[in-house]
Amino acid sequence: NTGILERKKETTIQLIDVAIGILSYFEDQTSRGMISQEEAKARAVSEIRSLRYGKDNKEYFWINDLEPVIIMHPYRPELEGQKAANLVDVNEREVFQNVAAIASKERTGFLNYKWQWNDDRNNVVPKLSYVRVFPQWQWVIGTGLYLDDVKKEISALSAKLSGFAFLALLLVTIISCYIARQSIVSDRRRKKAETSLQDHHNQLEQTIQQRT
């Protein structure tokens, strides 16, 4: 079970690598003097805003800075440009304040909280997000996985493994019964052969005695 979660976390880290790569590309364009930093940031936001992945192609990335101000959130555009220090989840966790704190201290890390499921604001569920700071712009980029989805995947795998275990047990039972039956049949044949041999031996002795 923990193996599935760890693989999901590793995938999340790799996804952030992709997004950081986009930011790095546009920062490189700025350092080469090809575009202004303002244009580089605008293009980077546009690129990352459009990124989607996952089963329903609804998983997304968001960006805030270290203040924290929401720079980009594809499903909550009304938050963009706003300070989010006091924005809390249903458990009163200061989500973006904690994101900024992790980015400032550790530069990268995971964060547990509750948030809307992708674009469904009426469905608030536990989420585990991974965030990383892009130091050149002091931006924090994040994406996450929904723990309910992970639990469903674990349950489905457990059910499949239980099915395999049942089939394996059934197969072992059938083989054991077959071996037991063969053993009984072999034992009967052995006893029958022994009895036949003894009868033959007795008849032979009787014949010898009669001749003598």
Question: What does it look like?
Answer:
The protein has 212 residues and is an alpha+beta fold. 56% of the residues lie in helices and 19% in strands. The chain is built from four helices and five strands. It has helices at residues 2-31, 37-49, 95-105, 147-211; strands at residues 62-65, 70-72, 108-117, 120-134, 139-146. Strands 2-1-5-4-3 form a five-stranded antiparallel beta sheet, with helices on both faces. α1 (2-31) runs antiparallel to α2. The longest helix is centred in the C-terminal third of the chain and has 65 residues, at 147-211. The model has no long low-confidence stretch (mean pLDDT 85).
Q: What's a concise summary of this model?
A:
The protein is of the alpha+beta class.
**In order across it, which strands form the biggest sheet?**
2-1-5-4-3
Classification by helices and strands: alpha+beta
Question: What is the total tally of β strands?
Answer: 5
Helix and strand sequence? HHEEHEEEH
For the record, give the distance between the C-alpha atoms at the N and C termini, rounded to a whole number: 85 Å
Mean pLDDT, rounded to whole units? 85
Strand content range: 15-25%
Shape: rod-shaped
What fraction, in percent, of the residue positions are helical?
55-70%
Tell me about the biggest sheet? 5 strands, antiparallel
Radius of gyration: 35 Å
Task: Please report the number of helical segments.
Answer: 4
Residue ranges: pLDDT <50 for 5 or more in a row?
none
